[in-house]
Amino acid sequence: MRNPYSKNPFSKNSESGTALVAGMALTAVMVGAAALYLLVSHNGYEMSKRELDAARAQLASEEGLHLVMAELKTGVDSDGNGVGTIEFTGPDGRIARATATDLGGNLYRLISVGTVPRAALGTQVLAELIPSLGLSFPARAAITANGPVTTRGNIEIDGRNWDSSGATVVGPGVFGISSSQGINNTGSSSVGGNGIAPLDPPDPASLEENASWADGIDDDGDGMVDEEAFDGIDNDGDGAIDEDTNDYPSSPDVFFKLSEGTLKSAAQAAGTYFATESALNAWIAANGGQIPGGVLVFIDFQTWQPADFGNQFNDPPSVIIHHRPAGDALIKNLHGAFKGLLITDFVERINGDSSILGSLMSFSDEAYGNAYGNGNAEVRYSSSVLGSLPPVFPTTQVRVLSWSRAASQ
Description:
By secondary structure, the protein is α/β, with parallel strands linked by helices. It is built from 5 helices and 26 strands. The chain is elongated and about 125 Å long.
């Protein structure tokens, strides 16, 4: 009879088999987990690669858009494919292909596709091309003023039409002075215009006192005549602005039919905006002591004194705007030569060595600070100069109206 307390000769083998099975199961689980980890890691890696490639494709697509916009703005064919067609390959192999289709009315459809090995992304944009805006100044006179004007010293103000060099009279021109109030001729100052040479005292035909900005015409056909202020606002609610005006313009922007602040913004963008006199004088000094040609300058401090343009005419003509919302900008003790359009609130003392060729306009309606002349200065009207004023913005602008994307992988 077998001893019940004796060991089973098979128990050790049975335990070993169980351990082996458990080990194999654990190994299988670990192998499966490792395989799953590798699969997940691989999928994550692939997803990261796809995301990276999608970002590279988007970058290429946007590069293509910017390049084709640059061609539209400048009119320059940058890659020999014709203006409005771009094919660009980046250093990492990304490719951008972009085209611009003219839809008429300055509208363009821009399509740009960025391509990399694992992704492609297309972008479609509807854009408006805004041509550079040139300033047009329909001068009433060599000097146009909202306030009263006093001429002093030996200043000569001539509204006859001079050529762009200021050497020859080429036409009868305009008034010498046009003021919304009175004109007082003192000293030995002389004024001419409308084909009349400067005289002391001036011929009345060369002056326009108490000038009206109303024309007595129903310009907008609404049954009312000259019913609007010249202020950049639709005063009569007909959807049009300043189309039937009755008074002096309220600001330089309004006069040029621009949104308020446009001239200032344009100068800021061009680096020709000055909030302090020291900054303005430093800029002029850096240009050899001369006002540069072909620029729009916006001066935003109260008093520029002395105002020295330099001893030679700038070429091409420039525009100087010295105006503040309070209407208190004063340009005083003018020296040197300036060709173009000078706009300010107040003018005092155009000195004997000063020569302005083009036109001058002042906005203040007060008597103080509107004294023109102090010596042998001269102000001469020139339609040729005023016809060559710089644009508000020197390059064509592109305005995006809509933007959409489509991706494929």
